[in-house]
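Note to self: the last two entries modelled the partners one at a time, which told us nothing about the interface. This time every component goes in together.
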Amino acid sequence: MADSSFRAKHRANPLFLRDAELRQAMELLFFAYRDFTQEADAILTDYSFGRAHHRVIYFVGANPGITVSELLQILKITKQSLSRVLGELINDSFVHQRTDKADRRRRRLYLTAKGADLERLLTDRQSQRVAGAFRAAGAEAVEGFRTVLRGIINEEDRQRVARPARPTAV
Amino acid sequence: MADSSFRAKHRANPLFLRDAELRQAMELLFFAYRDFTQEADAILTDYSFGRAHHRVIYFVGANPGITVSELLQILKITKQSLSRVLGELINDSFVHQRTDKADRRRRRLYLTAKGADLERLLTDRQSQRVAGAFRAAGAEAVEGFRTVLRGIINEEDRQRVARPARPTAV
DNA sequence: GCATTTAAGTCAGTGTTATTGACATATATG
DNA sequence: CATATATGTCAATAACACTGACTTAAATGC
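The predicted structure of the combined assembly is written out below.
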């Protein structure tokens, strides 16, 4: 701590508060993510699923017909890790596969009705949390939130984030 | 997906874009957190540590003299889970304990010089990422980012996030 | 002073998520 | 037909988390 305050004092002059500010930002990210995932995690327990299952259900729901390799690029996990989770979801009929007609090596993934139900159950809780924060913060703050988060994401993945058709009116 | 668009169309009239917007927000959180932790995770591997070790190092660094139970409340994990991680950090001399003078049941935690070095190594990378995003986004966006994230955090934990002395000048 | 509570630590067993490495199969493409 | 690509699988390992039961030491309330 002694060292950290030393560091802060010896940075670019007009930005004394930089360290404290960045530290705060990192804590905000940690706590927000912790609480953002918490409710969905609790629901998943009832299905003997974990956060990884949610991620798959979410991204398959958001991108119907997504292939296995596209999903791997989004999640940045190994094929073997995905395999277990995806296998369980297919086995329990939350997700189903269809071989691509043009390229029969590709398996396109879709949510079943059951899968869509679970996706809604999980995502709705999280949506409500975010919606509450959006409403309280106002449209301008929401725009700032998006801009900063986009800046934190690796440049090559920024285009992966879904873009709503028009800008916000909160 | 069919169901989800149905849902969107049947919500409060002036907010057609709500679903897509909230979905985007959730993806931004996912990708930003994924990339935010990625670099630090890679460094931790060299020490045979994981993200949990980083969290302990971070919060002990930010709150010198924090007690074990306070740390548990922040991390929201069990005593047994913390025990392994904290034990390793103490064993490897990244963290040290000192019995509280007033209440000798309490163990106050501090980073050693070695621990502070590692904390800096890890946090600096993440700071730079956030600093870059802040710089690109501008002061107003930063304020919005903070407001929205604060709103996502459970009300009872909002006061836990460190507050810099004065508002931003980015 | 003694019962109770609190703070911390420990032992044992389990489960989820992830990893690396090696390999198999089917299909597409040059 | 050789090579590359997409997917899947087997095996071993590790990090991180959990539940449940228990211990020790110290503080606190009556």
